[in-house]
Structure formats: C-alpha cells, structure tokens
Amino acid sequence: MIIRKVTENKRQYMELLLLADEQEEMIDKYIDRGTMYVLDDNGVKAECVVTDEGGRTLEIKNIAVYPEFHGRGYGRMIIDYISEIYSQEFDTLQVGTGDSPLTVPFYEKCGFQRSRIVKNFFTDNYDHPIYECGIQLVDMIYLKKSI
In terms of Cα–Cα distance, which of 73, 142, 71, 48 is closest to 104? Predict the structure, then answer.
C-alpha cells in the first residue's frame, strides 16, 4: 500500500471525488488549489483533497473510499497520513460534512470533535437536494482535531 500525492490530472479521479461531493461545480471550487492524495493498494482505493485555510488550519475538502472497500481502514489511513505529514506546518485539521449517521461518527472515531455548524449550507449551495441514509443534508457540521 502506498499513499501518493497527485500533482497532475486530478480530474482523472472525478468518479471517486463525486462519491464525497456529488456536484462537480463544488469540486471545481477547491480541486485546483487543493493538494490531492490517493491511497493505492493494488489499485486506487481512496482519495483526499486538503487545502490551507490560513491560521495553521488544514481542511479536508474531499475524502472518499470506493464503496466496495468501506470498512477496511482506508479512510482512517489517509487521515492519519495527512495528519502526520502536515503536523509541523499546521496545528488543526478540520472537515465539513453533512449531519449524517455515516460520516460524523467516522470522523469522531478518527479523533475529530464537533466545532461549528454552517446553517443551510447544502440547501444554499447545491442545485439539488442531497440525501445520505435517507436524510436530507441541510447544515454543514464542522469537526476539527489537533495534529
């Protein structure tokens, strides 16, 4: 298994990016300014895009694991890797996500704690309703952890 930085043709991973952020126009807002990593374990299994948000804060803008590889630790591995390689440059790793019973507990298991809410983020910024586990995502929940 290897985690490698992607410096060219990030859009080749659009199928994977769209698993975590289902509107391409939203991905376009951060993909070029973000740093992308892919986890390759006999083929790409996961990706993560991070951005420098200033104030020694790094943000996960997109993280996804192909569904057939969920539960194998790939998501946690890529978060641990990001935390380790950026720990000298940044103090905080944050992530914004929908208030979903799938994603929030995952981040909490990875050591993140809820920090703030952006009301109506999904209804204000996406051109269609987004559902996860049968629940419409409305507010964005920000979680953070020290790195």
Answer: 142
